Amino acid sequence: MLSPQFRFVVISLLGAVLSLLVVIPALRNRDKPGATGLIMVALGASLFSLGVAPLTTPLPDWAVYAVNNLYVAAGVLLGFGWLVTVGEHTETIVPDRRVFAAGGSYFTIVQTLALTDPLHHLFFSPIYLRQSEPLFVLPLPLNIVHILCMYGLILAACGLLFSDVLETTDARRTQSGLLLACIVPPLALNVLHLLGITSLNWTALGFVVMTLGIGWAVLRADFLDLVSVSRSRALRSMSDPVVAIDTEGRVIDANPAARDLSDVDSGYQNVTVGSFFQPFPDLVERLKTGTEGTIAVTHGGRRRDFSLTVSEINGRGDSPLARVIVFREVTQLKQRERELDLLSQVQSRVLRHNIRNELDIIKAQNEQLLVELEGRRARLAETTVSSADRLLSISSKTRAVEQLIESDESPTTVDLAATVEQLLETHRETYPEVAFSDRLPNSCPVETLPSIRLALNNLVENAAEHNTAADPAVEVVLTETDDEVAVSITDNGPGIPEQELAVRDQGRETSLEHGIGVGLWVVDSVIERSGASLSFESDTGGTTATIRIPRQ
């Protein structure tokens, strides 16, 4: 049967080997947060386990002296390595030159004291007491101070992890909880030995458990691949200003973007909103009431537009604690809106006045020429009149689109049967050569936008205007179900060109595909705003356009 000493040696050596294995994935991911600290921890755990193994047998003083020096190096690597690992993970410590300079300086001092102990006997006892003895039996304090310092670093890191577990969720909480659980076994076993509760230092067994846990975290839980980003860091990195305000109107916190907006560098916490945003009195009133919406301020000599989003923070019993206000900058968007509005006004004036007036003149003069001329010249005048009519129609439809965009309609009750009947009467006068027919109920009330009449008018007009059949015909059929009302407009014309349908399906013009008119754009806009749907069945024998309006 294996003796406890033999099992102790085997476990210690196993801990040394397994701890070194953590170095491999850490080196592969050395550019990831936490990798550097993990390498230090793995090396420290391996050195500690190697030092523990020979202490089960009598050793000469020089060997005990060497083991104690090994413990000093292992302790520094473990303490600082664990703090760096956790600090990077929780984003509380940046492992820069200052951090490593502090760790290196501490390591140099204690290691020098340990190595030169035979000269001054300030670090170990004069007979090089073994670390296997209880902590408080050591006669001199320097080694005790060193051990307590390392415990302090490890416990500080554990505190950061515990806080992170309480404040975070999902993958980040899993990572923090796993790291916290990994350090408990070696820490607990080492404390039991230092207090004299166990005769053998089974800390290496704890390192075996820790190594397996960290190995699982790295290989299965993506500890080094899944980079943690805390809420505070995300808030600091946001380009949009964010301010937290309590129920008394005092600033609790503000990210750098908000402090830049208010020109406040420090001392901003617990000040009133009025003091924090002193240059913007209108903004102060909005923040006090927590009213969402857009607001414009002048900052740095230029106008800046913001969209305010307010989120309430409630405590127990849904009692209000604070408000978090996010300033989403929409300066460029507002500028673009102003430019588009100006462009719309210019185009509207040009289409309504200049172009339309000129077209009326062109049409009137060519109608006069059509009366006075004969033969080829008369046909040219007739073609010009037709072109002017089409352009005037496009101008009217474009104006209809503009009015539709500018309007703020609300759903109302529309009698589709009466609406279709009125449209057909108008188009019978406009297109006397087209045979219009219908199948309509006596009445068909439906809740929809009033502009549905505009969509129906365009579809009937297109069916009649572009119908080149010998005997052009257009039929409108209205059918009802419990769920919807369907209006179908069928013609016997040549069908809608594939090019026109392609433009409609893509929702935009391309360099090779252009729509032949704006009629379908008007229809699609109305259909989208009203919550209805539009479908086409088209071939060389004709086209059927069907509008389906759901019942409310």
UniProtKB/TrEMBL annotation:
Task: Return the Pfam families for the record.
Answer: HATPase_c, HisKA_7TM, PAS_8
Q: Give the PROSITE patterns listed for this entry.
A: HIS_KIN
Q: Which SMART domains has this protein been placed in? A: HATPase_c
* Enzyme Commission number(s) from the entry: 2.7.13.3
Membrane-crossing segments per the record = 6-27, 34-56, 62-87, 99-124, 144-166, 178-196, 202-223
GO molecular function (one): protein histidine kinase activity
Per UniProt, the keywords (alphabetical) are:
ATP-binding, Kinase, Membrane, Nucleotide-binding, Transferase, Transmembrane, Transmembrane helix
Signal peptide per UniProt? none
What's its catalytic activity?
ATP + protein L-histidine = ADP + protein N-phospho-L-histidine
Q: SUPFAM superfamilies this protein is in? A: ATPase domain of HSP90 chaperone/DNA topoisomerase II/histidine kinase, PYP-like sensor domain (PAS domain)
Domain (Histidine kinase): residue spans on this chain: 350-552
Q: What is this protein called?
A: histidine kinase
